Amino acid sequence: MLKPTYPYYLANEPRQPNTELEVTDKYTGKVATRVALADAKAIDAAIGAAVAAEAPLRRMAPYQRQAVLEHCVRRFRERFDELAMALCIEAGKPIKDARGEVTRLIDTFKVAAEEALRIDGEVINLEISQRARGYRGFWKRVPIGPCSFISPFNFPLNLAAHKVAPALAVGCPFVLKPASRTPIGALIIGEVLAETDLPKGAFSILPAHRDGADLFTTDERFKLLSFTGSPAVGWDLKARAGKKKVVLELGGNAACVIDADQADRLDFVIERVIFGAFYQSGQSCISVQRILVQETLYERFRDAFVAAVRKLVAGDPKDENTFIGPMIDEKEAARLHGWIEEAVRAGAKLLCGGKRNGTMLEATVLEDVDPRQKVSCMEAFGPVALLQKYRDFDDAIRIVNASDFGLQAGVFTHDLRNALRAWDELEVGGVVIGDVPSFRVDNMPYGGVKDSGLGREGIRYAIEDMTEIRLLIVRDA
Of the four listed, 195, 388, 432, 438, which is most buried by Cβ atoms within 10 Å? Predict the structure, then answer.
């Protein structure tokens, strides 16, 4: 169970000035714990501390930064069950999904510990003409400086880790604002970091309401803003961020293409698509939202898929058998329920689900949805999937690309030519062949194009964003 109260972390130290932020059990709706809420004064102090920590953190040797990350890996393993239950309570994440996220948290810090020793540079041959004779060039990566991190509610541990771990690997002090609905995971990360010998001010973790956290975006002492969340908020933050570098990992309405040649393994495909569409109640930016099935396979796939969806167990996320848990709050459940009803009124066919009870929304499958409907053209971020036929692979590519988003896409095909065409022509940040777009491993370059964001997560690629290239030229002749 959760502690009665949690402090925030200001300049590496726990502080409990209040218990103003109530964190609810997302299934019962009851207050599960209370957390210290940061005000503008605390955020300003954290930024000042991060600036003061910049030089001492930069001087830490790579093996010292690696030791901090390895300590985190050990402690996360020791606190595995506690972290999983915290996720289950504060995010409403089914316990099996919660354990999976803790595993990914550990993976992310493990990769960061390895990459801490690989932040290298190059020797450049500058003698490209007579005028450069005798000149030698060298470059290295140096930390960009204090970083502002804003993480979302749906992966409270691992999406915070994708900001925190590379910052520690490279030596950037940071101030993290976790989602106010799910701050506990990030605060436990803070507890573990407070056990290390990081320089004072190297990290602050400050839950804050969005309307009181402007400094995370506008303060010029930050050299980088990394935000994960909704497109509307993300692009607004970028517009107000000033001169700092901005990395955005935003939303999507991911498509999954199923070729006619998948008839020989339809059970496997359905199993994976169900996982991609409905794990943690569809609250993932790479959740399968649009399912495109080649027309000769469509009816067979539809009937088997809907029958399998009807069998999904919904209920208390603490129950080992639960697959569909609550959405993050009733407002979000009501929003998506309204989108489903709008689509049905506009002519869509409801194949299963569609009912709501508070935060619990049934796993829902629709077909014949007008692509202009919100549930199709916007990010659903909940347990709903749309079925659609396509004629040939050109048609499938056109349908996938007819979206304002471009995060990841999945393609089930045995045809190597179609697989390579998908990689060449789909307007997305990543193409997954033989699986759903919901697949992610924490060392890969992950991010999107169009309204889905800019920049890439994945430790090595985040390190590139958190560093600048510094050139040295030596004239020796």
Answer: 438
Q: How would residue 113 be classed by pLDDT, with cut points 50, 70 and 90?
A: very high
Active site residue 249: yes
Q: What is the largest CA-CA distance in the chain?
A: 79
- Joined tokens for residue 430: 């990543």
DSSP three-state, residue 356:
strand
Which one from 285, 332, 362, 379 is the annotated catalytic residue? 285
Q: Two tokens at 59?
A: 């001087």
- Residue 431 to residue 254: CA distance in whole angstroms: 11
Of the residues 90, 115, 249, 457, which is catalytic?
A: 249
d(CA 24, CA 329): 10
Question: Residue 214 — pLDDT band, cuts 50, 70, 90?
Answer: very high
**Which residues is 431 bridged to in the sheet?**
409
What integer best gives the mean pLDDT of the chain? 97
Do 295 and 302 touch, CB atoms closer than 8 A? no
Provide the pLDDT for residue 184.
98
Using DSSP, how many helices (H) and how many strands (E) does the chain show?
A: 15, 25
Burial of 443 (0-12, 13-18, 19+ CB in 10 A): middle
